[in-house]
Amino acid sequence: MSAPAHRRPAAAHLRAAVERRYPAFLADLGLMTGVDSGSYDSEGVDAVGAMAAERLRGLGFAVRSVPVGSTPDGRRLGDALVARHAGRAPGGRRLLLMAHLDTVYEAGTAAARPLRTEDGTAYSPGACDDKGGLLLGIAAIGALLDLGAEDWGELVFLCTPDEEIGSPGSRPLTEALAKEADFGLCLECARENGDLVTARKGVVDLRLTVRGRAAHSGVEPERGANAALAAAHLVIALQELGGGPGGTTVNVGRVRAGSRTNVVCDEAVLDVEVRSATRDGLWDARREIARLASRTWVEGTSVEVAEGEECPPLERTPQVADLADLALALAAELGVRAGAAATGGAADANFAAGTGLPVLDGLGPVGGGDHSPGEWLDLSSVVPRGALLAALISRLGTRGAG
User: Fold this and answer.
1) 17 partner at 20 to 30 Å CA-CA among 303, 340, 392, 394?
2) Measured between alpha carbons, how far is 104 from 115 in angstroms, rounded to an integer?
């Protein structure tokens, strides 16, 4: 028996279905942003996660909480959520939707800055990054279900609790789910001009420890080897790196040296960040840093390099470019203003893309002011961007339709 013909919802029907869910979106935005959920506030993160789980179960998702461990200093992280919804498209694709529960704000911020709306703009901590995106995903999926358009093999909705601190606990979960998926859709908000995100720089942190030799600075300074002086030369050389493949940047973000003014400095520490849009760029920068570290900047000093874990870039591969072209074509059909942009910031999309999964980001509403008291969300963008996300899910979910 042949499979039934695939009928995608008309643009007007999608927009109307999302519009009907807008009041719930706005009410939930107030509830979610009214809860402090800084990355280290596990109770707050779990409270926001419980709200998301309730909404997803209401849509028929099977939801489970996944513990992701603790920080190196022993603080428990909130749980991740993994929600699954089987569709009705024969041989359909598995789509991974990603959002995060945590914010950068300290306890008390939610009470000090409750949701307020002014001239069609919502202001509250986390409204843009990323509670608005999470809720838009729920609204878009709800609209498709309202229309009976379950055009996918399986939707997997992942909510991480620690994205704002680099996802140290949830990264393995993101990567495992990405390896099972056909496409990834990240619900970080769109750029301020409405652009989708097709590339994000990868990041790696390094610590360079410069070791010298202590001596009395007044009696016998010649017996010392000044690690601070060597570090100063090294800082200048490091800052001159960059500009290679992928728009690589190198930033010496923190410098610590010495203990007393009357002692020749015997140790200095440089904390360095490298960002690049390509893995080749990250590799080339690390090789150059190793070369600089091998030089003798001051006689009697040496440099040791320790690398942190790499966050891979979300590269604009041909598959990602095709995904972006599809999204922009759908945006044009829906009358949604959108382009394609690259950004230097990292997100969970990076980890999913690092497995080889084609990922498109910036699929939430339009917003800005992330990590600041002025964080905002353009409420007029919610319905059109929700319709775009719903259309993209519908198109990608059916094999052969992407």
Assistant:
1) 340
2) 17
